[in-house]
């Protein structure tokens, strides 16, 4: 079966941009307005001779809109069905409680995931990376999980 990668994150962090980059397409609508990606969006990517199914999802966050529940449900289905979750964070902004909640949700899937900080080209850098590392350390220890698990699941930052 094809390995699949699900891209999750709150609205506007750049999920669809990353999807287009990975699939070398313009299939996903990229926009400054949040909430445009409502359903899952599928594409293919190849890397080192292997093919991957890439799944773009709608933004998950606490802001309630007409479709937010359905969007969240679709995103979680994509995560559930994937072999790897990319949790995308906007590195130009400070970490939000929605980022942290999503981090917890993704972690609980108990599958491989990587956290990717996006928008690092924007000059005004934030403390997102450091805060995320601290949150991860504190939460893992609080929930009595081993540090080893941190390094296995929590690879990229
Ligand atoms: N500066 C900068 N802008 C980005 C980057 N990635 C995405 N964007 C912009 O952020 C906005 C939201 O991107 P989009 O891919 O639609 O985010 P999504 O809602 O998470 O799918 C768009 O205006 C993108 O052009 C990045 O790496 N750097
Ligand atoms: Mg999108």
Keywords:
single chain; 157 residues; alpha/beta; Rossmann fold; 5-stranded mixed sheet; 21% strand; disordered C terminus; binds guanosine-5'-diphosphate; binds magnesium ion
Describe the structure.
The structure is a single chain. This protein is an alpha/beta fold. The protein has one domain (3-153): 3-Layer(aba) Sandwich (Rossmann fold). It has five helices and five strands; from the N terminus they run βαββαβαβαα. It has helices at 15-23, 68-81, 97-108, 128-142, 147-153; strands at 3-8, 41-47, 50-56, 84-90, 113-118. A five-stranded mixed sheet has the order 2-3-1-4-5, with helices on both faces. Strand 4 (84-90), helix 3 and strand 5 (113-118) form a beta-alpha-beta unit. The structure holds guanosine-5'-diphosphate (GDP) and magnesium ion. Residues 9, 11-17, 30-32, 34, 37, 59, 118-119, 121-122 line the site of guanosine-5'-diphosphate (GDP).
Which SSEs are present, and which pair or pack?
Layout: E1 3-8, H1 15-23, E2 41-47, E3 50-56, H2 68-81, E4 84-90, H3 97-108, E5 113-118, H4 128-142, H5 147-153
Parallel strand pairs: 1-3, 1-4, 4-5
Antiparallel strand pairs: 2-3
């Amino acid at each position: 079966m094809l390995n699949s990668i699900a891209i999750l994150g709150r609205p506007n962090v750049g999920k669809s941009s990353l999807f287009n980059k990975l699939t070398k397409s313009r299939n996903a609508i990229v926009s400054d307005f949040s909430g445009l990606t409502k359903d899952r969006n599928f594409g293919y990517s190849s890397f080192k001779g292997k093919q991957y199914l890439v799944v773009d999802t709608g933004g998950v966050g606490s802001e309630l809109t007409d479709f937010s529940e359905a969007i969240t449900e679709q995103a979680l289905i994509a995560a559930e069905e994937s072999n790897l979750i990319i949790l995308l964070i906007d590195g130009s902004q400070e970490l939000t409680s929605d980022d942290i909640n999503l981090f917890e949700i993704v972690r609980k899937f108990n599958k491989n995931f990587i956290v990717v900080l996006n928008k690092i080209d924007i000059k005004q850098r934030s403390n997102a990376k450091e805060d995320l590392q601290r949150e991860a350390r504190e939460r893992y220890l609080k929930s009595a999980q081993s540090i080893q698990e941190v390094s296995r699941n929590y690879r990229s930052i």
